Structures
1.
Amino acid sequence: MKKLKMILYGLYMLLFILIFILVFSIVNLNNKEKKEYSDDNVKYEVFKVGYLSISDSLIIDDYDDFVKYFNNNSDSRYDSNGNIVYKSTGEIINKYDRKYFNKKSLGVIYVSVPGGNDTVIVNNISIINDVLSINYYVKDNSYTEDMSGYYIVVEINKDVKRINNGY
């Protein structure tokens, strides 16, 4: 009887460990730092940037404004070659240079989330006339109350002048 209890206890512990590993894996899969999507030929990315005390939705149509905005409002910096370098990951992105802003602009939205493991999911993006519309929601993946945030960055043509965003 004692041997049976020991075997059952071992099986319960193994089951507990397997459940813990499964939950941990799911949380890590949902917590990627950068996600790139394409919706009806509109290219956009969602960057996890942590909590920022801003609530901006804006169109950036000039490289110098881009550098100034992200230097002031993100965990990024610029190296001597003009590349964006994310401090937390060391990732270098040189996609948005002066040449990019000659022909295109960026629509930028900051979304704060209540928990560090929560994610921002973009439902759809549309451009009608000169208005960029972004529909998104916050997916609650968290058991914590450590606020965080995401940038939704949309590549747009120069003729887009306004952003309409929301849940």
2.
Amino acid sequence: MQRPDEDLEQYLRKFQPRAVRRLELRPQAGNPWPLRLAVAAVVVLTGSVSLWHAERKTTKPANHVTVQAVQSIGMPQTRMSTPALTKLALDDSEAFDALLARESRTVLPSMQGEHSALRVLSKE
């Protein structure tokens, strides 16, 4: 048993403690503002290009009229604000349910037609 302890002590004698040197800090080179301005310009340019690209993808030609646009011309739609909808849901849940049912019939596609999503899924 003494042999491993002696080997360990002999191994540890090889190491000599050293004084800790002072941490050297490199001085900052130049003024950081040009770099910050360049980064801000790249961020603004990237954001504006992505917004432009998204807007370009969503816009449709002027001669193409959608069905939803025709429906909105035929009947005026009144949109309730979020606080008004919340108040209606808290005060009168039956009226809120009726409003949601009426809106879902005008906004969502029909599920009972020949090419409805339910009929297509049921065939698979």
3.
Amino acid sequence: MSKNPLNPYVDFGSENDVELDTKNNYAIVSSAAEGDSVIYKIEGTEFKRIAKSAYTGEKMKFYDEDGKEISESQFKKYTSNMSKIDIELNDSNVDKYVE
């Protein structure tokens, strides 16, 4: 796990959307430009990447935290309670937005 939620797939830039599931402590960061998304499990102030989606040029593919391909329905089980936010989450403010 990393205290810094940035990763090589999607970062918390201004061109990205962030959605939260405060009930289950999930965050999804989606890149508007590429269409890729990364889902994190928030544990205290740490973010653990648990799934990602990536557009391959032909279709969207979905992966678990180990890079193993999963189904779209497995990926979407994390996104059912998401709400969009316009605030960048970081170590100093995550407690304000995640229970």
4.
Amino acid sequence: MPAAAIVPAVIMCVFAALLSGLGFWAFTSAPEGSNPRTALIFTLIPAGISILLAIITLLQGKAGKLAAARSTVTIAAIVAMLLAGGAGGRIYPAMGGQKRYAEAKEQWDRSISEKSRPDSPDARKAFFESMDAKDHDTKYLVNALLGITGASAAACLLLFATRPKV
């Protein structure tokens, strides 16, 4: 089997492992009240596609069809590029949400310490809604999106650089 097919397939597998790890990390790091299943869906589907494309690339390389292997590597690079764009586009809004949460939490803690508000889950939820903020910390989301964007951008560049020559 030519190394021209093996190298991009290995990159796809490493990329899939990184995505899976980031997805499971975000899932386990998510605080109560968040929707951590989205992190798994957003990472495991592209990871599965990457593994599938790696297998196809290896099979085509073994059969000596380097033009077809080049096409599957290109598709994998495009998947990584789309994922980088999708995750990267969510970073700024997620950072804004994190900032609003931090400001609202500071005001909530101050009002509770001054005993100017009732300390109940419903009052807390209503207060955070009035501040246009989530009632849970979203730092895990910002970090996961940064990791997904970085891994995807790196995988995209590496895959384009290692496409089999025909």
